[in-house]
Amino acid sequence: LDELALLIGTAGADEAGRVVQRRDAPDHTWFIGKGKAEELRELCLAVDADTVVFDNELAPAQQYNLEKLLGRTALDRTAVILDIFAQNAHTLEGRAQVELALLRYRLPRLRRGATAKLSQQRGGVGSRFGSGETKLEVDRRRIMRRITKLEGELRDLQHTRSLQRKSRARSGLAAVTIVGYTNAGKSTLLNRLTQAGVLVEDRLFATLDPTTRRLSLPGGEPVL
After folding, report:
1. Quick one: average pLDDT of 31-52?
2. Which of 15, 111, 156, 204 pairs as cysteine with 116 (C-beta 3.0–4.6 A)?
3. How confident is the model at residue 127, as a pLDDT?
4. Residue 15 and residue 78: Cα distance in Å, rounded?
């Protein structure tokens, strides 16, 4: 939950309160129990919260039922991370990947007719998942067309990346990869080694786009 609070802060919101429930299995309707959901609604009113974030994955039906019961936006951890990705992706490929993930996340959560309005109320964190306090504007066919278009664009971009990879392989230079959890210091290390000038911030998922630089090892051997 502490990490979820950091994620929420990175996405641009403030934590107003926490609720924990111990259960043997999630409730299929609300994820948490009905009584706990009522308690959560009272807490939201007390602290004036406009969004509730769950540390677990919510099924589309659970998310919808919670929003209807709570009268405010309900998100899961995946939604918050996608929101952060949408803020931090800058390359053409990165933006396309994030938009594709957002659309795939949103597709099973579409609501039509009279039930559409509440599920489209999006403010603050998760604002990229809807169009504000309006009825549903993007129907299933339009989203599917956009998904198909993005998949085609990504195939083209991946082909270009493959050609670049082959070109690097022909150069005979060894490839070194820096691997670590979010906010572990990968960008800081890359900047220290290669003066890459990559963005460094003390927040989760601040850097999403890949960066390759040439480095001469102490023995003089160049690597990528």
Report:
1. 95
2. 111
3. 57
4. 17
